[in-house]
Amino acid sequence: MNDSRRVWPLPVKLFHWLGAVLVLGALGLGVFMVQFIDDAARRFELTQTHKSIGVAILGVTIIRLCLRFLTVAPKPEPAAQLPRLAAKFAHWALYALLVIMPVSGWLMTTTTPVRVPTIVFGLARLPYPLAPNVPAYQLAHAIHVASAIAIAALIAVHIAAALIHTLLWRDRTLARILWQPPNDRRIKRAPPASISLCD
Amino acid sequence: MGVGAFIVCRLPPRARPPLRHFAAICALTLLGCAAASAATRAEPWRIDAAHTSIAFRVDAVGFPQTHGHFTRYSGRILLDFERPAKSFTGFTVEAASVEVGSPVFNEFVKGSMLLDADKFPTLSFSSTSVEKVDGRTARVTGDLTMLGVTKPVTLTVSVDNDGSTRSGIISFIAIGTIKRSDYGMVFGIPLIDDALEITVKTRALTDE
User: Fold this and answer.
1) ipTM of this model?
2) Does the beta-carbon distance from A42 to B101 stay under 8 Å?
3) What are the pLDDT digits (tens) for B115-142?
4) Distance from CA of B182 to the nearest CA of A (A)
5) How do beta strands B88-94 and B195-205 pair?
6) Distance (Å, rounded) from C-alpha B21 to C-alpha B83?
7) For residues A12-22, b (16+ Cβ closer than 10 Å) or e, as one string?
8) Is the pTM of this model over 0.90?
9) Closest approach of A148 to chain B, Cα-based (Å)
10) Cis omega (within 30 of 0) on the bond before A11?
11) Does the distance separating the beta carbons of A113 and B191 come in below 8 Å?
12) Which of A114, A177, B36, B59 has minimal Cβ neighbours within 10 Å of its Cβ?
């Protein structure tokens, strides 16, 4: 039971990595289908897949937010206040963008005059609560694209920080979300004077 | 001609034309009758399916141009080279035979937002006038019926008969643009263009 305060609980870990795969998939597909596809039929199909993944991301993010509020977080690794605050800001910005992105995408599908039905993974039809409105569509589209750029940048920082924690500072930040170390002897604690970025 | 001969015989002797004039009148009348009967008949030509395509394309904002064609259709071409205005062409296409590049996309285009193929199984075109512009171009006006609405449309037709009507093969490329909204197809406007460009390529064959 001590370990539950030293590592993140299993559901938190699973949904984190599931979300990571879905987000990288949706981001990659979004860029690919817009920039590199010039065949209308292919673009149509990829857009339908992209929308399904987006809806899944929104669902996973809501679950993750609920888990986060219900979970006792592991005790933070030693760190100075500024890096710790920066990490907190980055993580909550990621959560916010993980909600803004699929919601702005949803707003795009409902306000576009091109109202193609969205059947999420062929199972359920996505409701379109708003009427077509070109200015609203253009705003939702701008938010969606800007958020995509922001989240891509934040993900790059997030991954770089995790690697720095693991390879440079050799602390347990990545280990806590990745696996349950059998014991701590193999993982050196960072000396108190060093600065580490962790939540 | 028999009637003409009877009338001439009934004229008073001084009013009758000389025999040589009478023969000329008969010959000219015969030629006139033959010419008139030949010019009133537009000959049916066979449509070469292997060289026929009924295609369309439409532009959209932030989306690639959509190209499509229909694979099941029937058509008639009647040609009159002496009097092109008497020529006729008509095509009927099956809406469900539309091909736009993938089964998923096909289903969407056949669906209720666009072609509504369940409710309107066919689209058709029937020419009402043919105007020869020059030796290789004609303007064909006709009635296009789509989604149950019939509107006139004019197509510019390039004609390629390999230099001779006697070769038995004539190629046509007919191009025209319609406004989808005229036929009640308003889906996606203005992000999807209202203008739909139609290109019909065909080759007509005769057995003569």
Assistant:
1) 0.79
2) yes
3) 999 999 999 999 999 999 988 999 999 9
4) 18
5) unpaired
6) 31
7) bbebbeebeeb
8) no
9) 17
10) no
11) yes
12) B36
